[in-house]
Inverse folding.
């Protein structure tokens, strides 16, 4: 088990790092016997501490939680309880997918772009309809079944997930609808 415990513009002491490793170890012992990675990042937002936890499971799935509190230990406790709840909720499904999948999830590298939003300068028409690219990054698209994609989206707390469908070998999208249901786009 590898831990990466960092602080953004705050110092993280040995006591907090030991506490994080012990608490996360207890959670992982309950739900997963496979080696995983965990990234725990602490930051400060005004008067509150923010704790973000991302767990990389051995199958390639990720689990993410975030919490805020006025004390740093309380922020971590809230985030770890969310991770615990997500892993408990998906324990059976995670075990089922571990049996079906002998290899980790295959990832494909693709380009990702951040486009400039519309300016609030008034009603002026833009010179061209081409969007302005603010940033270009490399991202990865996992090769999953539809059930695994929905589970990954839920675990990550994301509103949308783009994935490569293992069965049809095409790019698909799952997303959370406004009515709370899950939508699936299969071109």
């Amino acid at each position: 088990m590898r831990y990466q415990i960092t602080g953004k513009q705050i110092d993280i002491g040995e006591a907090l790092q030991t506490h994080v490793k012990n608490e996360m170890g207890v959670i992982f012992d309950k739900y997963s016997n496979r080696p995983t990675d965990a990234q725990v990042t602490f930051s400060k937002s005004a008067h509150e501490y923010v704790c973000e936890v991302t767990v990389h499971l051995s199958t390639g799935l990720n689990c993410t939680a975030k919490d805020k509190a006025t004390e740093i230990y309380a922020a971590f406790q809230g985030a770890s309880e969310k991770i615990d709840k997500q892993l408990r909720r998906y324990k059976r499904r995670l075990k089922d997918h571990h049996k079906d999948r002998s290899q980790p999830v295959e990832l494909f590298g693709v380009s990702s772009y951040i486009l400039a939003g519309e300016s609030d300068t008034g009603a002026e028409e833009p010179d061209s309809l081409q969007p302005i690219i603010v940033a270009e990054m490399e991202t990865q698209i996992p090769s999953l079944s539809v059930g695994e994609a929905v589970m990954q989206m839920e675990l990550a707390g994301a509103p949308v997930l783009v994935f490569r469908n293992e069965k049809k070998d095409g790019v698909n999208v799952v997303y959370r609808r406004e009515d709370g249901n899950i939508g699936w786009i299969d071109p």
Remarks:
- The CA atoms of residues 3 and 21 lie 7 Å apart.
- The domain at 2-98 is CATH 3.30.160.100 (Double Stranded RNA Binding Domain).
